[in-house]
Structure formats: C-alpha cells, structure tokens
Design goal:
The protein has about 140 residues and is of the alpha+beta class. It has one domain: Sufe protein. Chain: A (Alpha-Beta Complex). Helices cover about 45% and strands about 20% of the residues. It has six helices and three strands; from the N terminus they run ααβββαααα. Strands 1-2-3 form a three-stranded antiparallel sheet. The protein is elongated and about 55 Å long. The model has no long low-confidence stretch (mean pLDDT about 90).
C-alpha cells in the first residue's frame, strides 16, 4: 500500500493568500486615527484596525493582529480593499469578498474574514462619529 504524502502548505494555498498571510508592512498602531475598530472573535484572535481619511476617501489602513495566519491574511485583504475607496464604498467589503479574493481561505476560518471586516466596520463607524463630533478625535 502506497502512503500518501502530507499536503504541501505552499502548494495548497493561492499566491494571493500567501502574500496576504505573510505581509507585515501594515502592522502599525496609529495615534489619533480618523477611525478605530477592535474586534475579538470567539477563537480568541483580535484585530485592531486604524483608518486615515482625507476628502471622504480612505487614505491608509493599518492594523494590529493577535491571531493566526488566516486572520492576518484577512486583515491585509480588508486593508488592501479599503484603501482608496470612499467611506461609503468601504461598507461594501464583506467576509465573502475577502474569502473570494484569497481563494484558499479554509472554509472553517471564514470567521477570520468576519473578524477583520467587523473591525473595519467599527473603524468606519468611529470615523463617522468623529466627523459629526470633531472634538472626540482629540480624546481617541
């Protein structure tokens, strides 16, 4: 009987997934962001998302991840998808669009996409609140 070789991690994932899973250039805690959101999932992973907005468009997104490689891949994808979009357009990013972009996000880790998108939504809500009440940005 012939033994099966273990699945090769590098072969089992798409290039998009691998790039986003190992990318670290957006790992940054921003002081006084225009929008901030933090979500912790049932799995214990946490994503903190920081957005900078100019002329109603998301200029930059950075984040801190305390979690697995799947969560990092999802947070990077959300950041990549959000940059350059208007605040309204960024609300259209969904866990499904994140998973579709990554191509090989394991089905049992869709919660990682939900976690990253949820942190973005909280950052967008925070940004909207600060635009309505500019004095709040001084205290964030």
């Amino acid at each position: 009987m012939e033994e099966k070789e273990p699945a090769d991690f590098w072969q089992k994932h798409s290039l998009k997934f691998l790039e986003m899973a190992f990318r670290t250039d957006r790992h940054e805690r921003v002081r006084h962001p225009d929008g901030y959101g933090r979500r912790t999932g049932e799995c214990g992973d946490t994503v903190e998302m920081f957005i900078s907005v100019r002329d109603n468009h998301i200029r930059s997104v950075s984040f801190i991840v305390n979690g697995c490689m799947n969560t990092n891949a999802c947070a990077n994808t959300v950041a990549d998808m959000a940059e350059g979009k208007s605040r309204d357009e960024a609300w259209e990013i969904s866990p499904e669009t994140v998973a579709a972009y990554l191509e090989t996000l394991p089905p049992d880790h869709i919660h990682c996409a939900e976690l990253a998108v949820g942190a973005l939504y909280l950052a967008l809500s925070d940004c909207r609140d600060k635009c309505r009440n500019p004095w709040k940005k001084m205290y964030s």
